[in-house]
Amino acid sequence: MLLGDSGHELSGKKASELVESYFEANEDEGSDNLVPVPQALIDTIGRTRKFIVKVSTHNLTGKTQTLTVTKVLTPEDPDIGVNLEESDGERVKRAAENIEGEEPKRAKCG
């Protein structure tokens, strides 16, 4: 889910624009049909990015695996040193390893 400034930095579009274009393009499709991913998100496949993420206890123990991206760094951004901040029992950690898989991961439906 791409929301807020981080989603805009990554895709170049606001979340409301992505949602609106998604529903406009797929308004005639039934709920059982596969619908295409917005082009702005497809364009992010294969690009290497660095993220600063917020990890809470819920992220590690909950049934869903989600992270809150607090900032998307561009390749031009200087490397940020490791800096942990405590806030209400949560840690803000830097996840800036350039890990490149053989194939981009695809979202699972259902």
Shape: globular
Strand content: 15-25%
| Helix content bin | 25-40%
Measured between the Cα atoms of the first and last residue, the distance is 15 Å
Number of separate structural domains: 2
| SS field, number of helical segments | 4
Low-confidence stretches: 86-105
Radius of gyration: 16 Å
Mean pLDDT: 64
Largest sheet: 4 strands, antiparallel
Strand order of the largest sheet: 2-1-4-3
Going by helix content, strand content and strand pairing, the class is: alpha+beta
The SSE order reads HHHEHEEE
- The number of E-state strands comes to 4
Q: Could you characterize the architecture of this molecule?
A:
- The chain has 4 helices and 4 strands, in the order H-H-H-E-H-E-E-E.
- It has helices spanning 4-11, 15-25, 39-42, 57-61, and strands at residues 50-55, 68-73, 85-87, 90-95.
- The chain is an alpha+beta fold.
- The chain has 2 domains: 1-46, no CATH class; 48-98, no CATH class.
